[in-house]
Design a protein that fits this description.
Elements: H1 2-12, H2 19-32, H3 38-47, H4 49-67, H5 70-81, H6 86-104, H7 106-121, H8 129-141, H9 151-156, H10 164-189, H11 212-230, H12 235-251, H13 257-264, H14 267-285, H15 289-302, H16 304-322, H17 324-338, H18 342-354, H19 364-376, H20 382-403
Length: about 400
């Protein structure tokens, strides 16, 4: 019950208390109440070390890219390359979101690329709706493209990440299908907004590209992470080392840069992730694992394509009900121990990653997206997101579930 209330606090954020403190408070109460022993809680926390290092490292790399102006430059180049076409600009923003999600994770697409896109759009007469929705939807739709594209991937495979070759075999076609299907629906939903020519309201000097050193650092980081994935290496340790290295490089230009990057790291997300390991352990003790067992058993009884769709839909529903991070951790923990059919396991992760595009409650990325828009004065609420998500998510989710292996 305590764990359930803590997850409810994460979802609803009563009194506007950050979701991380609800999760951490719930984990602490569980230990104090004796529902989980201190030793078990510590063991649960220790299992997530690779994930915490990954989150810190990837957020540091994203912060480095922001400090170096990489995303401001990308957004400005996209506006110029659109050559007066709103539809072309939407495609360019979507592609930028795919690349950002693939190499810096979906959170970077939300907290770094989206503000840069908004700044670039402020120089034009375009309404921001289609373009910010592109950032939000691609952040989750492209989450299967690489293991590093979404922290939920590391939570799901906390017991051991597949090699890059195995990842592509499982999710390669599924990822392409989800990305393409989401874009097609996005293009149709906002068709009216994209017909008029794109006009520039004010002309400013060209945004300077990032330093050559910064570009090299980001390129090396991407290659290092891909190489680590290829050999099933420690992604967390690699990402952390790369983030620390990037901060040192930034200090050669500006001594205050490392502190700026460190402040930009969303430390509450790290706390939330750590607390989730304890909460999920407590839920397992209380019998939550039976839900996962029942889900996979029910799906196997269905058989065929319906099994994949059923698992993905159930994972998506649960993710929108309580957030995809605890759902991904719970389903991944069960799959690592019970070894259900590989296709069903892959379909479950598709539901965890793509399913949050239904509502803003589905993932932290979409909650962060709303916060970014509020700060920028863009009025798009949870109801509007759901209206678009209910159209964009089903085709992407079904296609990914059927193609996941």
């Amino acid at each position: 019950m305590i764990a359930g209330l803590a997850l409810l606090g994460v979802l609803l954020r009563p009194w506007k208390v950050n979701e991380a403190w609800w999760a951490a408070g719930g984990a602490g109460v569980l230990v104090l109440a004796g529902a989980i022993s201190p030793h078990a809680a510590w063991a649960a926390l220790a299992r997530g070390l690779n994930v915490y290092l990954f989150l810190i490292g990837m957020m540091a790399l994203a912060g480095f890219a922001r400090v170096e102006g990489a995303f401001d430059w990308i957004a400005a180049v996209a506006v110029r390359a659109a050559c007066g076409s709103r539809a072309r600009l939407l495609l360019l923003v979507y592609v930028a979101g795919i690349v950002t999600t693939a190499f810096l994770s979906n959170d970077a697409t939300i907290v770094v690329l989206t503000p840069a896109v908004l700044d670039a759009l402020a120089r034009t007469d375009a309404r921001p709706d289609a373009f910010v929705f592109a950032c939000a939807l691609v952040a989750n739709a492209a989450s299967l493209i690489l293991p590093i594209a979404n922290p939920s991937n590391l939570l799901f495979f906390a017991g051991g990440m597949p090699s890059l070759g195995a990842w592509f075999a499982s999710f390669g076609f599924a990822s392409v299908a989800a990305i393409a299907a989401t874009y097609v629906v996005l293009r149709l939903v906002f068709a009216r907004d994209l017909t008029a020519p794109l006009a520039t309201l004010r002309r400013e000097g060209a945004v300077a590209p990032p330093r050559t050193t910064a570009s090299v650092v980001l390129g090396v980081a991407a290659l290092a992470l891909i190489a680590t994935s290829s050999y099933s290496g420690p992604l967390g340790l690699t990402a952390f080392a790369l983030g620390a290295g990037a901060m040192l490089v930034a200090a050669t230009r500006d001594r205050a840069a490392p502190a700026t990057i460190a402040r930009a790291i969303a430390w509450p997300i790290v706390v939330l992730t750590a607390a989730l390991f304890v909460l999920v352990d407590a839920l397992d003790v209380a019998g939550a694992a039976e839900l996962s067992r029942g889900l996979f058993g029910w799906a196997q009884h269905l058989g065929g394509p319906l099994a994949n769709i059923g698992v993905a839909a159930a994972a998506a529903f649960a993710s929108n009900l309580v957030n995809n991070l605890p759902v991904g951790l719970e389903l991944g923990t069960y799959a690592a121990g019970a070894h259900p059919p590989a296709a069903l396991t892959a379909a479950a992760l598709a539901g965890v990653n793509i399913g949050p595009n239904f509502t803003v409650n589905g993932s932290l990325a979409t909650l962060l997206w709303l916060a970014v828009l509020r700060r920028a004065g863009v009025r798009i609420g949870a109801r509007r997101f759901a209206a678009v998500g209910l159209l964009a998510t089903p085709p992407a989710l079904i296609a990914a579930a059927l193609l996941a292996r």
